Amino acid sequence: MKLSKAEKSWVLYDVANSAFTMIISTTIPIYFRSLVENSGADPSTATGIWGIVTSIAIAIMAILSPILGAIADYKGMKKKMFILFLVIGLIGGLSLSVTSDWVAYLLVFVLARVGYTACNVFYDSMLTDVTNDERIDYISAAGYAWGYIGSCIPFIAGIAVIFLKPFGMSTGMATQISFLFAVLWWGLLTIPLLKNVKQVFFLENRQDKITHAFSRLGATLKKIVKERILLYFIVAYFFYIDGVYTIISMATTYGGEVGIDSTSMILALLLTQFVAFPFAILAGKLGTKFGAMKMIKIYIVWYIAICLFGFQLDQQWEFWVLAVAVGLAQGGVQSLSRSYFGKLIPKEESNEYFGFFDIFGKFADFFGPLILSASAFIFKASKYGVLALIVLFIIGFIFLSLIPKNDTVDFIKPE
């Protein structure tokens, strides 16, 4: 399927920001763990602190997302809001490369995470600007797929610096330089999106757009509650994506806790990216052929099996198996969830609706790390938290099953 210039530029941003996504789930928490352990704390404490701070960063954006989305729906505002938070994210990311105190490290991480997450709200809503409903499953999947493979380039360069330690630099300094590679990659590959993606659907500007945006939030929330298909889907998404995001964001901290060495964890998660590339592309094609809803349900069942396997994990080879298993489903469940939601909503209000989509997703990611943190503090082991994630997947599956098989995508009309 040939992509337009706007579609290519949109996909390329996934390549850009996925480099930062990669280090969030690999080298950043590993480096943080080393900072905390060097201060005399035990591994489970590092897991608990990281889970809490990750939850705080996510909670901030979960609250802001629908507000920012509502404002961005007005003509010309989407790209302005995107650029503002891009700058915030890049400044926070660059600061990670020069910070070695673990408390300061957490503060700049929150700044980077907020900027990165806010950009994703506007980026996701741009999906409706660059393509149509017939191509949306494939384009959404292409974004995730190329993001997985493209993010490996700066990541591998960073890992090479960590392993080789050129010019006699320490492991800590080499790790911080690897952060710099990812952040620069993120910034440079964003340029095509800024040049080629336009806000096609929008609400006309008005002088009171800030106050009007707040009034629209209540109206939109009422629509979501009223339209059962949308309500069931977004509640289901809240639960099942909680488990998905938690597995992604907490993989290295959990692996370190059960005794997997850092090198094996990084290489295994790199393998996840390579596995995810073809299977994300495949997910787009399967979603188009069999329906996104059917495929999402299959992925949920697969993740339940992943949690069962992760609960008993205590061998290095098992972590590699887990990495491959996650790669098979990770891109598919995320991309098809995004494209399915994109078909349900009015295009002119896509930012606002994706803001609510994001708030459900991010509050889910808020609770997931807390579950593992609670398990780490109470039981001195996170594996019981991994097992508890199964409940979230089951609830998500149940709500998806409430959606009628003849669901339509045109029941919401912009006012």
Describe the 3D structure:
With 415 residues, the chain is an all-alpha fold. The protein has a single domain, classed as Up-down Bundle (Growth Hormone, Chain: A). The protein has helices at 5-25, 27-38, 43-72, 77-96, 102-125, 127-130, 136-164, 171-188, 191-196, 209-226, 228-249, 251-257, 262-290, 292-311, 316-344, 350-379, 383-401. It is globular, with a radius of gyration of 20 Å.
Provide a short characterization of the protein structure.
This protein has 415 residues and is mostly helical. It has 17 helices and no strands.
The portion of residues forming beta strands comes to under 5%
Supply the number of helical segments.
Answer: 17
Described by strand count, sense and barrel closure, the largest sheet is:
none
Helix content: over 70%
Mean pLDDT: 84
Kindly report the name of the CATH homologous superfamily: MFS general substrate transporter like domains
CATH class: Mainly Alpha
Order of helices and strands: HHHHHHHHHHHHHHHHH
Radius of gyration from CA coordinates: 20 Å
Uncertain ranges: 409-415
Number of strands: 0
Classify the secondary structure makeup into a structural class: mainly alpha
Q: Gap between N and C termini, in Å? A: 34 Å
CATH architecture heading? Up-down Bundle
Q: What count of structural domains?
A: 1
Q: What is the general shape?
A: globular
CATH fold label: Growth Hormone, Chain: A
GO cellular component, one term: plasma membrane
Domain Major facilitator superfamily (MFS) profile: 1-408
Membrane topology: Multi-pass membrane protein
Subcellular location: Cell membrane
